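Q: Sequence in, structure out?
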Amino acid sequence: MGFIIVLLMAVYAVIGGLTTLYLFFSFPAVIVWKFYRKLKYRISVFN
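A: Exactly. Output:
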């Protein structure tokens, strides 16, 4: 029983870590992409 709980905790830790890494890299990438489009193509940052 204890082994299953430890295994579930490990799986949830990996899932949480992957989600955190995705958000950590995707938010700045989107912001940089929006400013790049603003400077190059004159598209609104809010579009």
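The mean pLDDT is 96.
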